[in-house]
Amino acid sequence: MHTSIEPDVLVIENVKKSFAEKTIIENISLHLKKNELVCLLGQSGVGKSTLFHVISGLLVPDSGRVMLWGEDVTGRPGRISYMLQKDLLLPYRTIEDNVALPLIIKGEKKKAARQKVSEHFAEFGLKGTQKKYPSELSGGMRQRAALLRTYMFSSDVALLDEPFSALDALTKSDIHRWYLDVMQKIRLSTLFITHDIDEAVLLSDRIYLLGNKPGTITDEIVIDEPKPRSEDFNLTEKFLEYKKMIIKKMNL
Fold it and tell me: What is the pLDDT of residues 156-173, one digit of tens each?
């Protein structure tokens, strides 16, 4: 009796992208399994955001392809949700209506969309914020709202481009713990850009290192630690070992 192995949610095959004859990324191949959190770690200028634009369908690669559940979605925006560094919440809409926006854009009636998103507010730690406006929330709460909006766009795969980089250290530490907890609950597969080594080790199941110009994947590191991670994982010897290995591989 054969048990079927679940396919990868997302597969990127041999992607190359150039602008004005300058190659930004080349020969990029990676995969993302269901419920995995995979990080793309690299310094500024190695093409991380360009790669995300290709994966999300906003850019068409020169060569290579993007596969979602085995279907070719190369150059087809609207299939994979993408959250940028800034939360981009609309200041004149309530949090409820900001979060419901992806559903309304897809053609749902406002009342039905509000009803759908309201079921997730407690889960995302946003209970009681439905009728508030973005200016009334802290930076951490705004990021939670932006993540919920991203989830409402697509509950399969989310691309997050340095979503916590604007937060102060204490808020970031708090939201890291919250993020790991909520991702376990909603079982969202996540591809995550950062240039913060600590953040990558703390959150990831696997890390792809991006380096060189044009940008290529130089290494893959598996963070073989159970989730949810212990609260003091970033103070352990194991955490420091991962960090030292990454610094060495990135030639920092």
Answer: 788 888 877 777 777 777
